[in-house]
Amino acid sequence: MHTKSAAALCAAIASALMALGASTATARNFSLSHQNIRITFNNLEFDPGIAEPAICRITLEGSFHGRTTAKVAGSLIGYVTRVTTGQCSTGEVTILTETMPWHVRYQGFSGRLPSISQIIAKVFAASWRVSACLVRADIEFGAVRDLATGQMTGVNVPSQILPVSGLFCPVEQETIRSNGAGSSTVLGSTTRITVTLI
Fold it and tell me: β-strand 36-47 against 173-178: which pairing, if any?
């Protein structure tokens, strides 16, 4: 009788552990520690290809729609509501703030569940001007996630070629890239946002 009880208990524990592992491996949502975010790039490069690129300090501020976000590609997860430019080491860029807010949509992730190392999102219809060239494009961002703590430790903008327009612009495309990872924190704080799978 004692042996049967012990065997049943072991089976129940094993089933519970397997269920826990399965739920973590197939987690469908992200849980965010905070909703408001600030991302600062010290060297965001806007290269129109016709003159020296504008390399500037750019700060984006915005918010996620909720503390829980579905892991569904293309889903709207938040807005960029404010962008400011700091000192430029070369050139000059003007953010077209009248086009805000810019929508942010979840795109996917890097790594294997549950060890997600990067969360990929896209900002839609971001708009700015470099010289006489106007850009209105969708920009991909990669938020780096620390596997041990779950914290967002930085944000990258991989090199992307974007469409350009403008009455006096002699080119049809521009390249944007981040020269080094941007810092990401809770808006108005130095606290990092933690992302966990649920």
Answer: antiparallel
Count CA atoms within 13 Å of residue 64 on its CB side. 21
DSSP H stretches of helix in the chain: 2-25
Structure tokens at 127: 């708009």
Residues 6+ apart with CB under 8 A from 48: 130, 131, 133, 164, 169, 171, 174
Task: For 80-108, write each residue's pLDDT tens digit.
Answer: 999 999 999 999 999 999 999 999 999 99
The number of CA neighbours under 13 Å toward the Cβ of 170 is 3
Spatial distance between the Cα atoms of 129 and 133, rounded to a whole number of angstroms = 6
Q: What is the pTM of this model?
A: 0.83
Identity of the amino acid at 23? S
